[in-house]
Amino acid sequence: MSENLRKRSGVAGDAENVQEKTDGADTHSDKENIQSNLRDSEIDSEDDKNGRKGSIDLSSNIPTGTNKAPFMLEMLLQDLPDKWRNWVVRGIFSFLMLTFFLVVIYGGPLALMITTLVVQVKCFQEIINIGYSVYRIHGLPWFRSLSWYFLITSNYFFYGESLVEYFGVVINRTDFLRGIVTYHRFISFCLYCGGFVLFVLSLVKKYYMKQFSLFAWTHVALLIVVTQSYLIIKNIFEGLIWFIVPVSMIICNDIMAYVFGFFFGKTPLIKLSPKKTWEGFIGGGFSTVIFGFMMSYIMCQYPYFVCPIEYSEALGRMTMECEPSILFRPTMYELPGFLCGLLNTFGLPTTVSLYPFMLHSLSLSLFSSVIGPFGGFFASGFKRAFKIKDFGDVIPGHGGIMDRFDCQFLMATFVNVYISSFIQTDSPQKLLTQVLYLKPEQQLQLFHMLKDTLENRNILVPSV
């Protein structure tokens, strides 16, 4: 209260100084007007006039639920110490999430894509709700609707890009869809411009700063959530193994880091997350490398996991049947020279048979165990900035959906970059999709050029 009095006296002093520089009028009403103008110049919205300006503390506004559990489970665990109670609750719901993950994998690519979309929407909701609480904009229903409009628009663009890329052959055979595909990006841009115009029209005096801040908040949320989920979809289409193995690595690292930290953790790792320890970080890293190597070996043996999702002309549908690429075929590797001498001494072989993907999995596991946790640290810093414990209370023992997927989004980006940099080559299916967008005369020209080239290289027998 004394601090408020000092602030008011300071404002009053400023008002008096300004007043002395005027024509000399010193009436009581003039002083009040000057004081009011000085106060209003520092106010951005009606909420600030009510004394709500200051440090942001959302702990009472955002529902958090790391310690929440169903009533029956609460009754069963009420006699346990808080440390062990949280360990049991977290363990039970980790098992349930793993079970759900396996069921979704069994459901195939469509189930995975639907799950990714649902997770994306829930993560966006948790982030945007924090934004609403931070900027405290009331009485502006159109602005809340605009946030979701931008989510729908961005999903239309990104998911449409996936459909064009992977289903282009099928879509081009349907006349009424061909125009939508051809002008997909233009339609997406027009939809975004519509939202942009509505945002400008929704601007309200005294809310400008907060509206623009929340506009930026919305777009950052879209960048973090929607673009990353789009990359997850692209990884799925390259083969389920590119989705399952990285996701499993993050899960393994999270679980093992928690276990090692719980039983052996003594040395703090980072101030953003006081419960994180070096013992948990190192133990989780080693466990992830071993787990990823073993899981890759098992999954490389099944075409269901390694084949990309493509449209089959013969079957007339999407298929996951293929001849596995060189990445998923056993290859003999010569061991390093310093090991060969030792192995020769004992009469052991100096070569080893591995799937090449297993070597790539080492890169994925190193990223998930060294860089991946920084996604969690970033989320921890974000939550500390607004004094909240979790993003939500959906999963007892874990918090919100975003609390579980903060590292997954970063991992999905790395996997997509890794595939495009070291693995991916354009398939005939994708090239055919691009060819179908050419005019008929251009397609014929391409056909004759390709035919002549193949005949000159003796790959195709010249027709008589």
Automatic annotation (TrEMBL):
<dbReference type="Pfam" id="PF01148">
    <property type="entry name" value="CTP_transf_1"/>
</dbReference>
<keyword id="KW-0548">Nucleotidyltransferase</keyword>
<feature type="transmembrane region" description="Helical">
    <location>
        <begin position="239"/>
        <end position="265"/>
    </location>
</feature>
<keyword id="KW-0812">Transmembrane</keyword>
<keyword id="KW-1208">Phospholipid metabolism</keyword>
<keyword id="KW-0594">Phospholipid biosynthesis</keyword>
<feature type="transmembrane region" description="Helical">
    <location>
        <begin position="183"/>
        <end position="202"/>
    </location>
</feature>
<protein>
    <recommendedName>
        <fullName>Phosphatidate cytidylyltransferase</fullName>
        <ecNumber>2.7.7.41</ecNumber>
    </recommendedName>
</protein>
<dbReference type="InterPro" id="IPR016720">
    <property type="entry name" value="PC_Trfase_euk"/>
</dbReference>
<keyword id="KW-0444">Lipid biosynthesis</keyword>
<keyword id="KW-0443">Lipid metabolism</keyword>
<feature type="compositionally biased region" description="Basic and acidic residues">
    <location>
        <begin position="18"/>
        <end position="33"/>
    </location>
</feature>
<comment type="similarity">
    <text>Belongs to the CDS family.</text>
</comment>
<dbReference type="GO" id="GO:0004605">
    <property type="term" value="F:phosphatidate cytidylyltransferase activity"/>
</dbReference>
<feature type="transmembrane region" description="Helical">
    <location>
        <begin position="87"/>
        <end position="106"/>
    </location>
</feature>
<feature type="transmembrane region" description="Helical">
    <location>
        <begin position="214"/>
        <end position="233"/>
    </location>
</feature>
<keyword id="KW-0472">Membrane</keyword>
<feature type="region of interest" description="Disordered">
    <location>
        <begin position="1"/>
        <end position="61"/>
    </location>
</feature>
<comment type="pathway">
    <text>Phospholipid metabolism; CDP-diacylglycerol biosynthesis; CDP-diacylglycerol from sn-glycerol 3-phosphate: step 3/3.</text>
</comment>
<feature type="transmembrane region" description="Helical">
    <location>
        <begin position="277"/>
        <end position="298"/>
    </location>
</feature>
<feature type="transmembrane region" description="Helical">
    <location>
        <begin position="357"/>
        <end position="379"/>
    </location>
</feature>
<comment type="pathway">
    <text>Lipid metabolism.</text>
</comment>
<keyword id="KW-0808">Transferase</keyword>
<feature type="transmembrane region" description="Helical">
    <location>
        <begin position="147"/>
        <end position="171"/>
    </location>
</feature>
<dbReference type="GO" id="GO:0016024">
    <property type="term" value="P:CDP-diacylglycerol biosynthetic process"/>
</dbReference>
<keyword id="KW-1133">Transmembrane helix</keyword>
<dbReference type="InterPro" id="IPR000374">
    <property type="entry name" value="PC_trans"/>
</dbReference>
<dbReference type="GO" id="GO:0005789">
    <property type="term" value="C:endoplasmic reticulum membrane"/>
</dbReference>
